[in-house]
Amino acid sequence: MTHTSTAFRHTWLFLLILPLGAKAQTLTLFEPTETSTVPQPVALAPSITPGGSQPAFTLRSTSRIGDSYHAVLVNRDGGIVQVAWQAGQSAAVPGYGGFAVTKVAGRAVTLTQSEPCISAPDKGVSCAADNQALLALATSAPAVAQAAPAAVPRPTPQNPFAAVVQAGRQRGNNNNAGIRGVLPRGGGPTFVDQTNGQVVINPFTGQPEVVPPLSPEEQAARAQRQVQRADRLRAFQPRRIDDADIPPGMQRASTPFGDTLVPIQ
Question: How do strand 57-65 and strand 68-75 relate by DSSP bridges?
Answer without folding.
Answer: antiparallel
